Amino acid sequence: MHGELIDLPALGPSGPYRAYNRRVVPDVTGAPFAELSMAPRLFVDRALAALRSAPAMPLPARVAALTEASRVFLHDNVSGMSFEDYAGAVSRVSGVPVSVVRRAGAEIANAAVKAESSAYGARPVGAAADWRDTATLAGRGVWTRRGEVFAVHAAGNHPAPHALWLEALALGYRVAVRPSRREPFTPYRLVSALRAAGFGDDRVVLLPTDHGGADVILAGADLGLVYGGDEVVAKYAGDTTVRTQGPGRSKILVTASADWRDHLDLIVDSVAAHAGVACLNTTTVLVQGDPGPLAAAIAERLAALPSLPPQDDRAVLPVTTAEAAEALERYLRAQAGEGKAWLGGAGIVDELGDGSAVLRPSVYQLDAAPRGGRGVELPFPCVWVAPWSPADGLAPLRETLVLTVLTDDESLVDRLLVEPSISNVYLGDHPTHWLEPGVPHDGYLGEFLMRGKTVIRG
């Protein structure tokens, strides 16, 4: 879409707000594509005050509105854009293939319908959902909110993470979303759909800001969810009011009791699904024995993936500006060190001739697993294949969002489950990118948003 830029206003407690200060959102060629209104400090303060003053909707009304928002998001024209227009816009600015955007949109809509069961699935069995529920209360605890206003600093690498914060609305929070400048279309459409479905303008707002404004939003909320890299995780490490979602560094472990040839489809899918941009994509594959044949087999599969513009229905790889792609290539080479390149050693940049470039896959073999499990995670199919032995223990497997384990060693599984730095353990043929509403992603969000409080009646 060329010509007039798409207008994306802030969505405040009194409706859309078109600011004097606007930021251009470029597409993957570097050309201007949209304009995003930047909310000033006073607007942010007033929006947060309105959220705090708004009473929580009753649970049945919240559930009904979330269900209707799912329909609006997926099927209605929102601010003049059909769902297909929206998917094309997201693909155009983020470089995520349009087919991946469509699937992510369907996942968001599904999460909205299931937000109540997902959110309340985290409720402890010893706590009632309502103090009036005498049948289940019986002198025990009640599950209550830790606050009233929840802030989200959204991710821009993939639309699907927006499915998570819908649980906060199901629990009665009022929500302020700061969109990523890289991809503001998903939160804009989702907030608009929620408002059209019955959540008042003073219950969910969209607040685009600069970095200074981002801190203001977190400071004005009771709790916050922040997506970012290692530096973001370190910044909020000591803040109990902020939950961080950082690099996933997801992994696959193949022990001697499993033959990787029987699981090659699973391994390749875990690396390359979602165009390799998600935190759930596999970053490291550890194999007991010689990693060379496995690395070669992965490389052969990934080399066959086509280079196409992101709006092409057949596209499966991410696209960015040629300049950004070249910077990533330099970084990859610096990080690879003495690793053996089975794929990508000659470069990962495949220019499309319009200022954009496809990020081609890379496969590197390492002599040993990255220390502490902290392998390099990059926004395209990039995998590090390394040897593992029982003598290495759990150290190479730590710092992992999802670990798929191909083994029959139950004692190893026992140890993996109690390792605090491994968030999820999948046994057998389950890709690391598998995720459904109601299962913990990095723990249940409800564990962070809610607490048990003793209530005695009578």
Descriptive terms for the model:
single chain, 458 residues, alpha/beta, Aldehyde Dehydrogenase, Chain A, domain 1, Aldehyde Dehydrogenase, Chain A, domain 2, 2 domains, 7-stranded mixed sheet, 5-stranded parallel sheet, 15 helices, 33% helix, 22% strand, globular
Question: What would you say this structure looks like, in words?
Answer:
By secondary structure, the chain is an alpha/beta fold. It has two domains: 6-246, Aldehyde Dehydrogenase, Chain A, domain 1 (3-Layer(aba) Sandwich); 250-427, Aldehyde Dehydrogenase, Chain A, domain 2. 33% of the residues lie in helices and 22% in strands. A seven-stranded mixed sheet has the order 16-19-20-14-13-21-22, sandwiched between helices. Strands 10-9-8-11-12 form a five-stranded parallel sheet, with helices on both faces. β13 (250-254), α11 (264-272) and β14 (282-287) form a beta-alpha-beta unit. α2 runs antiparallel to α4. The longest helix has 17 residues, at 59-75. It is globular and about 65 Å long. The model has no long low-confidence stretch (mean pLDDT 94).
Number of domains: 2
Looking at CATH, which topology of the largest domain would you report? Aldehyde Dehydrogenase, Chain A, domain 1
Cα-atom radius of gyration: 23 Å
CATH class descriptor name of the largest domain: Alpha Beta
| Alpha-carbon distance between the two ends | 65 Å
Assembly form of the protein? single chain
Q: Number of helical runs?
A: 15
Number of strands: 23
Report the CATH superfamily of the largest domain.
Aldehyde Dehydrogenase, Chain A, domain 1
Cα shape: globular
The assigned structural class equals alpha/beta
Helix content: 25-40%
